[in-house]
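Hi! If you just cloned this repository, the fastest way to understand the data is to look at a raw example. We've pasted two of them here, unedited. The first protein comes first, obviously.
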Amino acid sequence: MNKTTKLLIASILMTSLGGVAMAKEFKVAKGTTIGSYHKPGAPVDINYSSTRVGLNEIADINISLITSLKSGEMEVKIDVDKNLEPIGEVYDNISFSISPNQKEYDINMRVKGSKDGLYYIRLLAKIDSASGAKMRALAVPVYIGDGQLKKKSNSMVMKAMSGENISVSKAEETIEVIK
């Protein structure tokens, strides 16, 4: 083998290995609410990572709830979409005592799904502190299979003369004559 052939083979191997590494990175969805605009509510942010998996594979969901408060109680109500099956320890409600030396509170879950789609784990965090009770709604996406959002819409989308999309739906009307 000459030097050019060896370099070509090495280049192909590195490119294919890089593709594998990128595919593995793509298998984890990560997100955060830190630094984004919030409506008034509980001072809670979220960092999450959610493993993208195939049908009937187990997805690891890692959630960190972050608060700047130094005291109080945080109650978290967790709602999992009906097409997701929790594996192992099941959480409906979790509570944390907020302490001055801790600002992150972790929730780790495992779920699986038998239908392709984009599903959500919804969290409702309620914080009771000296200034009163406040709440914040948060959501973590879970991608199963192709991970596409399945839209259930019977409406027909048309374009207005201005080019704007409009939705046309069926309507029923009852007319009564008042005497």
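Ok, and the second one:
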Amino acid sequence: MFLDPSGGATSKVLILTVGVGQNVDRSLTFAIEQHNPDFILFLCTPQSRGNAERVVQSRSLPSSVYAIDEFSETGDVQGLALHYEAVIRQVLFQERGFQPEQVYVDYTRGTKAMSAAVDYVAVNLELGGVSYIEGE
């Protein structure tokens, strides 16, 4: 929990793009530790879903504090952006009642197309912030 400008406690959501490659689990875990979110939305491909599931398992996250979205159109930035916006609106805003300013994006471990798409959506929806925690 972090304090909102009015002094009350509010929840923080972290959206993580999940690609494939070495040390993806470590980078995702590092981002979670840095942001300390109350809820996590993993944006995955069919090939990268296992990385998100390993992080969930290693951190013993209860199903109430995360969601995993899987989308197979990994090279189509426009398709990804449309999909991500729909998922964020549905899963975070409609189902869980979060506000845009509570939502932060870390695109450290996504593909280039995933990163471009989620950055576009973050700006379009006026989310709380975008970060790139670490990379090579």
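That's it. A detail worth noticing about the second one: Residues 14 and 85 are 15 Å apart (CA to CA).
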